[in-house]
Amino acid sequence: MTTLFTFWHYVLLLVILLILAGGVMLALKEENSKYRVQIIFAFFLVSIFLALVGLYTVDKGTKITKLYKFENRRNLTTEKIMFSGMVKNEGKYEIGKVYLEITLQNNSKSTGGDTSKGAYFVPSGLLNSFLGFGVEANKPSQIVEEFIIAENLKPGEVDDFIVYMRYPAYFQGFSVDWKLVG
Is the C-alpha dihedral spanning 133, 134, 135, 139 positive or negative? Predict the structure, then answer.
């Protein structure tokens, strides 16, 4: 049995297959043959919808992870930021992979509505527009990366992790947002 699906995933898929089989049998018993294809297609679409919603719901109920002691440290020599912590499986079933999505946001003072340093007016001219002179490199103010921080996490098991993310030199400060997906 794979760690992606639990017992409840298989039960849900079996029920949906039974609904689909019942719909096909109902369509084949229909006396008016021109509606058979539409009935089978409708049951097929309903089955796909039920499978997607059901699998998502079962996933949220069976794969429960929590993050503990989440810290970050910036290394100026390598221009990277290190994130460390512990992830725990608080559900009753094994989890194949645990993903951590980290969003690093620039907290520049000039982008927060402070117009005292001239951030309100951005000059542009003929050379900038047509010839490309003076055009700044693409400097995103938000960086999103996803990491696999644990694999085959058994129920109740805790796993330590350390991940590194590049830290742009033009950031004037940062805020961190994260999302844990089990």
Answer: positive
Report residue 135 as tokens. Answer: 């055009």
Contact call for residues 43 and 20 (beta carbons, < 8 A): yes
Cα–Cα distance, 146 to 161 (Å, whole number): 13
Average pLDDT over residues 103-132: 57
- Between 147 and 137, the higher pLDDT residue: 147
Query: What are the residues whose beta carbons fall under 8 Å from the beta carbon of 91, sequence distance 6 or more?
Result: 62, 63, 64, 65, 155, 182
Query: For residues 37 and 173, what is the distance between their CA atoms, to the nearest angstrom?
Result: 60
Residues 12, 76: Cα–Cα separation, whole Å = 51
Q: Do 75 and 82 form a contact (C-beta atoms < 8 A)?
A: yes
Torsion angle of the four alpha carbons 70, 72, 73, 79, in this order, in degrees rounded to the nearest 10:
140
Tens of pLDDT, residues 9-49: 888 889 999 988 888 888 888 777 777 888 888 889 989 99
- Taking only the tens place, the pLDDT of each residue in 60-99 is 888 888 889 988 888 878 888 899 999 988 888 888 888 8
- Pairing type for strands 142-153 and 95-106 reads antiparallel
Q: Which residues of 107-137 are buried (b: 16+ CB within 10 A; e: fewer)?
A: eeeeeeeeeeeeeeeeeeeeeeeeeeeeeee
User: What's residue 143's pLDDT?
Assistant: 85
